[in-house]
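cron nightly-structures :: item 1 of 1
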Amino acid sequence: MTKQLDSIIADALAGDGDKTALDFKGREVPWSYMRNVADAVERLLDEAGLGEAQQIGFVPRNRPAFAASLLALLAGRRTIIMAYAFQSPEAIAADLRKLNLPAVIADEQDWTEETIAALAPGALGISLSADLDAESPVKLVAGDPSADRAGTAPPTEQPVVELLTSGTTGAPKRSRTQYSTIETAILAQGVLDQGGKSDEEGDPGTVNFPISNISGIYSLLPYVVSRRLVLFQEKFDLDDWLAFVKRHRPTAVIIPPAGIRMMLDRPDIDDDALEGVSYLMVGTAAVDADSHRAFEQRFGVAILLSYGATEFCGAATSMSAPLHQQFGEEKFGSVGKPTGQNEVRIVDPDTREVLAAGKTGLIEVKVPMLGDDFIKTTDLGMLDEDGFLFHRGRNDGVIVRGGFKIMPGSIEAVINRIEGVAVCSVVGAPDRRLGEVPVAVIEMQPGRDPLPAAEVEKAIRAELPATNVPVAFLFPDALPRTPSLKIDLKNVKRLAAEAQAEGAGA
């Protein structure tokens, strides 16, 4: 009988405790630590009677205690409701009040008077310590296991994981994914081309995507369920990543898109720094063709692109190692072919008519394990005659900043509320490392002086994630407009691009 995800995770936690599970900020985190944290979380939830399919709030940071707690929640087949950690305590509290959950797991720094007060009556507040040497890394900071929680959110019909999207309007939104869907993907090993060496343990891996979203989940789980070593990064650190790769020489390894440009911009990195690595797997954001080409020529490692989203439960298409070996240069820049049983089609943005090979239009994806309907996107793409997908950007104003999706309207709404502002337009400007960055072009009311950049930035940070803060604030006498007096976005983008190229900053 094939083992299920919960039993495989249980076996991983029960294995040799002396073996290193995670490499985290220069520390080797043993499996004994992972087991102790997971057991402590499990005990608290069991004592409270919060078992399978019970909704548990999870406010994760990429720290070892959260990786261990995630394993505990998945092993217990509980419903996981992700909440965004990188916002103010007031914003986290507001989210918790709406969710009304029977238990919430968060970092010790996120448990404040506001967040504790936001818990439902009787709800458990479980705190995880960032200190790897803490005597009690898991603590109960609110609630009592024996308390009455009848008024809190009930169990779901089946276990689900409400993952966070990368964020467009304010804090990232939740997207519900069936536990069984994640289980199928992990057990099929369809989320990561292990490549791998022939030794028993297989290649180690790197995880630098947040474990609150699909990229982080699908990066981490294939490694930990097979007890392979993981470099676990709270934030991408190129030197840390390079040291790990040089030390372990994995055949295939994941890097965020921004890492490609960061390596190219570092003359101190030897051209043979990735010796032994055959493939770099890149997802979540586009890599511009010039950087892609320059990287492969300098470091001699092929970049494998993919196209995915939370709504697809992972990668809809990918350029696998076998595909790259077969087609290579012929399909340079492609994000590959559909994975598994997925289907991709290109439709006309206006008529929704399916377009022929070679035509550019909107990408639609069918993921059979999610249903029979095609999922609509605002992404532009082209399918060639061999079925390879080429991503051609976005059909709306969304700015993709190093993998973070930013909706200009949410930033504009904040700026337009500032006293003295007449109108604001936020657009994306090209950036070699991040792909695109937001620039705010602000028209002041007659007689009003331009605002200090710090004042605008403060207003944005109070309402939106830090990724939404523009890199530059421009104050022309008037925004460019069309003859019909609409804002001329083409010329606004030109102003923003020129300012970014000249190094204008906030």
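cron nightly-structures :: done
The longest helix spans residues 31-47.
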